[in-house]
Amino acid sequence: MTGSLLRTVDLRLAFGATQALAGVSVEIGPGELVALVGPSGSGKSTLLHCLAGILRPDSGSVWYRGVRLDDQSDDRRSRLRRTDFGFVFQFGSLVSDLTALENIAFPLRLAGVRRRVAEARAREWLHRLGVADVAGKQPGAMSGGQGQRVAVARALVTGPRVVFADEPTGALDSFNGELVMDELVGTAREQGTAVVLVTHDPRIAAYADREVVLRDGASASTEVSA
Ligand SMILES: Nc1ncnc2c1ncn2[C@@H]1O[C@H](COP(=O)(O)OP(=O)(O)OP(=O)(O)O)[C@@H](O)[C@H]1O
After folding, report:
1. pLDDT, tens only, 34-46
2. Which terminus of the chain is more solvent-facing, meaning fewer CB atoms within 10 Å of its CB: N or C?
3. Residue 75 lies in a domain
4. Interval 120-159: pLDDT, tens
């Protein structure tokens, strides 16, 4: 497909005797929201980690903006993760001894942005996600929903081309889960950021433009969401 942003070709990866990925080929377009769904153990998180350049497949390939990603050095892949990708995980991925403001400013600081500028931008994001009141709090002093909104801000603050979200609402009740999804999806669409989302929850998957269904490490089907 022309115009694909991320693509895998016949991806295979085993952990010992477990074939986590057994030949997965998927494509993700710029700004597209794709949900990876399927039963527990079907390979969703493993596929997300391969797409993000965190795990290397045993065979097959991963392409990002037309360049092969999986055979690049660890250094180059981690640099790309800092510059082009954002991450939201289930819970507890914020740095526990940094405040909300410092957590959001952190990826900007890693990218070489000066502290004052980074913190001003982080403050804007706290307002944007409705959690300005937790700016000076550490993650342990926030609710689950507040923490995930801070995590969404941290993932989007650098203006990434892709956000990878692994069960981003898994630890939240459905009300807070939907609020976090509204914010993640709304801001991603505004910025033209693609989102690759792993979820068990059909209501969360329904936010995506398309669902990729995995079964036993293979992409069983791809469906356009209603
Ligand atoms: N680091 C690892 N070491 C050993 N086995 C692993 C590892 N990571 C994943 N697996 C195995 O690979 C298979 C796919 O795991 P994966 O986490 O990708 O599935 P999943 O669809 O995301 O599951 P879930 O919905 O339960 O999170 C599973 O059988 C799992 O036990």
Report:
1. 999 999 999 999 9
2. C
3. yes
4. 999 999 998 889 999 999 999 998 889 989 999 999 999 9
DSSP single-letter state for residue 134: G
pLDDT of res. 1: 45
Q: Which of 12, 40, 46 is the pocket-test mutation for ligand 1 (most atoms within 8 Å of CB)? A: 46
Distances (CA, A) of 163 to 95, 199, 225: 18, 14, 19
- Ligand 1 atom at minimum distance from 46 CA: 18
> Domain total for the chain?
1
Which of 36, 45, 204 should be mutated for ligand 1, with most atoms under 8 A from CB? 45
Q: Whole-number mean pLDDT of the chain?
A: 91
Enumerate residues lining ligand 1, CB below 6 A.
15, 18, 20, 38, 40-46
Query: Residue 70 maps to which CATH number?
Result: 3.40.50.300
End-to-end alpha-carbon separation of the chain, Å? 22
Give distance in angstroms: CA of 18 to centre of ligand 1: 9
79 located within any domain: yes
